[in-house]
Structure formats: C-alpha cells, structure tokens
User: What shape does this take?
Amino acid sequence: MKIYIQTNSRQYLASKVSAYSFFRFGYQPILMNLDEISILKSKIGKKYLRNGQLTKYKNDLQSFTLLRFYGPELNNYKDKILVIDPDIFALKDPKELTNELSPEYDLCCTFTNNLARSEIMLIDAKKVKWDFQNLINKLFNFQIDYNELMSLSFDNQIKIKKIDDRYNQHDKILSETILLHTTNRITQPWKEGLNIDFEYYNNKKFFFIKNIVKKALGFNYNQNYLKKKYYKHQDDKVTLSIKKLFNEAKESKYIDKDEINEAIEKQFITSKIFD
Assistant: This one.
C-alpha cells in the first residue's frame, strides 16, 4: 500500500511527522506539497464556489485539501493507495485497511451523517481515473462546488465503501484507534499558542457576530469563532501522543534541525511541541 500525504508550507513539518508515524511500520509515504504542484498553485488568489458562495482560494493552513484528488494520477492509475491529510497519524500499523477495499468497491473512507469524508481514502487507482487538472479547472470555472468535491458527491460513478472510524478517529484515542486525525484545527498540538492562520468558511462574519451577541447575553457560544490563537487540545492523551511522535521524528533525524528551526521561525509550529 502506497501512502500519499497532502501538505503545504504551513503543515509541512506536521506532514513529515505524519509520514514518520507510518514509516515506523515499514511504509515510505510520499508528500504531495502544494508548493511543488503548479496546476493548483496557479489558482491561489482566484475564486471558487464553496457551499454556493464565491470564496477566494488562499494559501492558508488548509490550502492542500484539493490535492487529495491528485493521488491516483500521481501513482499512474495503478495499485491501492492511501491518501490522507497531514494531520493524520498512524498509532498502529494500518495494514488491515487494505482488506477493507474489496473488488466491488473503488475506494473506502469513513462517513459522517451519510456523507463521505475524503480526508482519508483508500483508493483503487486502477478504477478511479480522476483527471486532476480537469477537476481543478471545473472548480475554478464554477462548474462544481468545493463541498461536492470534499464529500465525493461530484463523482456518481465511483463505488464507495464505508469503513470504521478507527481508521479516522477524530481528536480522541480509543483502544481500537489505528489512525488519529487531529481534525479540530484550532487545537492541533504543534500550533498551541500561535496565531490562527485559517478561516471559518461557513459565513464567518455572521457566525462571528452571532457568537459575540451570545457571549454578551450570557448564552452558550462557540468560543472557536472568537479566538485568535490556537489553544490546548482538550485531550491530554492526544497531545502526549503527538508530542511523542514529534520528538521521535526529531531524535531519529526523520525531521532535521534546520527544517524544525525554519518552521518555528515562521510560526508554523511551536517549539513547545518538543518539550
């Protein structure tokens, strides 16, 4: 099973630690870095449809997300490939995941509210023939919505199998967890205390004002919309596991001193992750 990890400059070091988490089990993950893929990089600053709203494509924390559709083409449309976000870490060997993709399916992933979650996909690249440039052009020509891409609803030809959440465990570690996904961006442990470098896209001005009013009236409100900095993860077990991986990757020289220092200097990670 080949593993492709999406990334960009802001999540590059985290993606290398993600790669290290798989490397421990004998895999050789490949990073798909936005900075090296001109098809997508050329679209920075242009607009696309996101939930029906015109949105500017910014090179922020999550500018890598469209790269998940590049994996099959990059692998020459062959083999089973695992495509993941840079904030997903292997806590156990994911080898049994390959058994989930039986011949009658084209890819498998987890689901939420009956919608496919594409941040981790095991893809049979012989069957999934996505043309990356064509998809990107359709998105920026307003022929397709970003949300349709992320939920995989844009392609009604592919047969998707739902797999267990242990392959995409969101912000908690259970006894059965295989792949941990620190999906709540604002609590990613390697960024604690740094200024937020992402946006909430679901009508951010409306939600910002709504939560200010709720706070002023003493009602329950979503603190995330009002915070300007990344804050501590709610689960110490998650933080300790991520810190352990960062430190192991450093000690084994899977990540080197220069790239660590550069990421700290640019405030892409906090030095506290190595404490």
